[in-house]
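User: Can you model how iron/sulfur cluster sits in this protein?
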Amino acid sequence: MATVQVAQHAGACFGVQRALDITRQALGEGQGTVHTLGPLIHNPIVVTDLAERGAVVAQTPEEVGPGETLILRTHGVHPDVERRAKKTGAHVVDATCPFVKRVHRHCENLLRDGYQVVVVGEAGHPEVEGACGHAPGALVLGSAQDAREAEVPRRVGVVAQTTLAKDVLDEVVCALLGRCEELRVYNTICQATRERQDAARELAANVDVMVVVGGHNSANTTHLAQVCKEVCDRTYHVEQPSQLEASWFAGAQSIGITAGASTPAEHIVQMRDAIACLCDGLAPAGS
Ligand code: SF4
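Assistant: Here's the modeled complex, given as structure tokens:
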């Protein structure tokens, strides 16, 4: 009989839970139609559930009318977007995670103090675009290779996407070290991300199969899957129980589960039950 264990730190973080609570409260209060600017979090199941409760995903602030509600999501936005949102006359609710706000402040301060701001993260990711908006001219570097190829001035100030894998930040900082005179680094990888990565790595190293639960469009869940894959070949990233395949667990005696910061706790429980059910139907290991 295989054991199924959930990582010590897994699933919805403080910022995501806060944004969900804010949105559910707004839906309950019924101040006009409730819009989120883009999908609230990178989790299609949660986004579908919110849509069923009446939340509408707006692509631009201008889609929202006066008196309606517009929620800015955890990733934060470019200051121009916030200005446009306020101009619409909508009731703007800022659900930006306070840890993302801290990145914005570091960007502003570094720019003011004359540093070339570098955001280490995924180009085009909404959080990275929002951060860059707080330091016009910021460079986005996603890898050590990017750092070796970028033109960097004398003084460089670094912040990180909050969900970045720590190894990537280390590599980029090392690559920048020899290329500028002064390097100031704020490790803004959020504690929730670090805890989830550390706990996932530890569990993945000690099980036969690792299942990572969360949206395929979620950067932090994808990073978790990469971290697990480094130490456990049989790592699978799935969004919902129906995507599990019994063959993944053949012969496994121990199965680990982790989940990205945008995965609600109830999804982890559902996944654990589904895996236990699948394993019950398999022949015992070694038979
Ligand atoms: S991962 Fe960290 S920074 Fe991102 S929303 Fe969660 S708590 Fe906030």
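A couple of observations from the model: The longest strand covers residues 155-160. Residues 13-16, 74, 97, 99-100, 162-163, 190, 192-193, 261 surround iron/sulfur cluster (CB under 6 Å).
User: Helpful, thanks.
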